[in-house]
Amino acid sequence: MYLKRLLMVCILTFANSLSFANPPVEIIQSCKNMTAANNSIVMAELDGVGLNKTPDVNCRDQFENKINGHTYGWLTCDKKPYLIVADKRISLESSTNFSVSPSIKPDTPIIQTALWWRIDKADKSYLCIMSPLSENGAAANAFQYFLIEDAFDVNQKSYDIYFYFFNKDF
Q1: Which of 4, 17, 26, 43 pairs with 36 at a CA distance of 20 to 30 A?
Q2: pTM listed for this prediction
Q3: Per-residue pLDDT tens over the stretch 105-126
């Protein structure tokens, strides 16, 4: 009996911790709608990125910007897309995938026309990246979203990246 209760408490504790691990719904809404979901959210659009004319070895399409003296951006290396967050290269494939379409995964490169937002709520900040799946065709009107938790804390060893795609018909 005691072991069953202990096991139940452990399972509930684990499930409860998972529910707090994802960004709050108002952060996701703010990123998707490009406007603060409520008065507790502060948003700032960030300057666009520029092409790095001397990309890293085995890389191409390297776009980046300096924010508070640190590099943020994206690039494709060995045919795999990466984010650059506070000078650190992170594979998009490591994102937690919340796509509603099974065929759309976080392995599609970010497009040059992507919009970047800083979203703050209380003591948490997020980098929101909204990018079309393609530069032209039907995919140009289908957007993928990346939320990077604490992206502006340059002392982080790793960053939690969340991927969202909301178009069920794609």
Answers
A1: 17
A2: 0.84
A3: 999 999 989 999 999 999 999 9
Domain range for residue 131?
24-165
Residue 93 included in any domain = yes
Contacts 24+ apart (CB under 8 A), 131-134: 133/104, 133/108, 133/170
Number of domains in the chain: 1
Res 102: pLDDT: 87
Q: 2 in a domain, yes or no?
A: no
Distance of CA 50 to the CA centre of its chain: 19
CA 114 to chain CA mean position, Å: 12
- The stretch 133-146 carries a mean pLDDT of 93
Q: Around Cβ 54, how many Cβ atoms within 10 Å?
A: 5
- What are the beta bridge partners of residue 128? 117, 147
Q: How far apart are CA 85 and CA 90, in angstroms?
A: 7
Tokens of 29: 């809404």
Asked if residue 9 is part of any domain, the answer here is no
